[in-house]
Write a structure and sequence with these properties.
This protein is α/β, with parallel strands linked by helices. 35% of the residues lie in helices and 34% in strands.
Length: 124
């Protein structure tokens, strides 16, 4: 298994998933075909063989289709991948963006072992 890196576009985020368990997703996630973008990430996460995952999520925008796939990705890392014993999520949001903060809180409530750390970003 190799690390996974994707460059951002106007509609897709930058992705860096390292086999060490250090992972991040940054940018905008507003593609129409979220399944096409997220399914390879979900497949990769299901095969990850590490005891600890630290995932930083720093998204300016997450549309509904992306939100559903993000939940699926987090569920794989949280519950279904039995190799992972510790799961830390850094959820970044702009100070005036209550929707993004709420999205993280909703995702956190749906997970079992994930520990969320909310990071307020300075406005641009």
């Amino acid at each position: 298994m190799q690390s996974l890196f994707l460059e951002p576009t106007n509609y897709t985020p930058q992705v860096a998933f390292e086999t060490s368990g250090n992972m991040y997703i940054r940018g905008r996630s507003l593609m129409l075909d979220a399944i096409h973008f997220y399914n390879p990430l979900i497949d990769w996460a299901s095969r990850l063989n590490t005891p600890k995952v630290t995932l930083t999520i720093e998204l300016d925008y997450l549309n509904t289709a992306s939100s559903k796939k993000m939940h699926e990705l987090l569920k794989i890392l949280d519950v279904e991948n039995q190799n992972i014993k510790e799961f830390l999520v850094y959820w970044a949001y702009e100070a005036d963006d209550e929707d993004t903060l709420l999205e993280g809180q909703i995702l956190e409530e749906r997970l079992k072992k994930a520990v969320f750390v909310y990071q307020e970003l300075a406005g641009v």
